Amino acid sequence: MKLEHDYITAERNRIQTEYQRRTHAISPKQYSPWRPDQLLERNERRRIAATTLYRYGAFPKPNTPCLEVGVGSQGWLGELICWGVSEPFCTVLMSIKIEFTGQCTCCRWPTCEWAMQQAYPGANDSFGLVIASTLFSSILDERVQRIVANEMVRVLTPGGAILIYDLAVNNPKNRHVKKLAKRQIRRLFPSLDVHFHALTLAPPIARRLAAPLLVVGTVGKPDSAAEDAPAFDFGQTVSNVFRLVRRSRYARNSVMPGLSGIISLDQLGSHLETALELLHHTQHLNSVGTAVNANLFVGETLPQPSRPTWHFDIERQVGVMHAGTILSDHPFPHEVDSHELLDTYSDQGADGWTNYDGGYVIVLFDNRKHHLTICNDRLGVLPVVWTHNGRSFAFAPEAKVLFQFCPDMPIQLDRQSIISFLNAGYPIGARTMFSGVSQLEPATVLTVNTEDLSVERSDTGTWSTNLIPVKLASKRRPFCMMP
User: Fold this and answer.
1) What is the DSSP string of 354-422?
2) Using an 8 Å Cβ cutoff, are 297 and 280 in contact?
3) Which pLDDT tens digit goes with each residue over 70-85?
4) Which pLDDT tens digit goes with each residue over 252-292?
């Protein structure tokens, strides 16, 4: 028994010494809630934690008892109250924050195990949600980690959840913390179903990326905290954002072939087909451009050896092309081609396309009505961005093609979209990262008059909703989450 007390006491003293060192070595302003990197971290953590808990049926109700173990100065109490949990049901235990007196509050009991037993003797199956935030990475002794994990499971009610927010990579400059690997999580909680979710940029990257983007008006002299705020460099911030996006696997996988085109009241240039080559991200892509008339150019970028889908019916004076997969179940399940799209348009107009399934973009030119129609599926699987000025209208899968189509268009970044990206992870609505460039939202029909370039946007509320019902058989089990 003495040996057990020795290694627990040694680990507790090590943590206490480290927190005392950090109190003097690290400025308290580094983790102040007004800092942009802290706002970015907290907003992302709150959003993903809430959606993940809801997905697994473990989101706390107002009367769900919740326990947070091992919290420092910034715990989850605020998030729990924002989620609607009544404050009497929120409990914080075993805080290791060093007070100004130099004493560690976790020293009230000899061991972690005794702490929970003394606070809740016989309180097995008492809490519906147990949270540990950066706790296990601060405990280097695996024996102590096992004690804490066992006690967390002991007080967890059947069907409850354990939420762990901790380090996924080591900090090379801090040997007092150690990453929490997935296999280690499974060893600590062998009786639980474990699910993982990656979030939170590494703090050094977040501090450089999340420069303050909101301008706050103040009256009088700013305080010292505002004077110590990091200098705002909008250009450097945007450069960092795009560097991360380009390197992410999501950006690489989202690039795909698509449809491009431009309507110009002036004479079309000879560089349009060259602009389509910007979409050749692999050697297996090919682009085909067609000058429909003196003012309209359309192009397709498609994988080899696929055939171009552009088809112009001379009798009806209507041309159409499409990208992606269009499915129809009338009169039998089959894939729709350009000829069927023309027939449907002739009989029912563009409203007839609302019964199609799949992921696609359709572009149709009606020479008699003098309009160009662009529509997509209900989920907006394939990307389409477009721009419009007084003399031209252009669309493409990526914004860089638009800048080639319209060389006189200035390349300016949209600040509101950058703010949305840092907070939500994507631009909201039809906005894009570039000012003057919009994206085609899901289930949208865009109609452009080819004579005066007027644009009419409509939401097709009659899109087919013949979704296949899926019965989800899942048992509510505790789980863990970590970056």
Assistant:
1) GG-EEEEEEEEEETTTTEEEEEE-TT--S--EEEE-SSEEEEESSHHHHHHH-TTS---B-HHHHHHHH
2) no
3) 755 557 777 888 888 8
4) 333 456 899 999 988 887 778 888 888 888 778 888 899 99
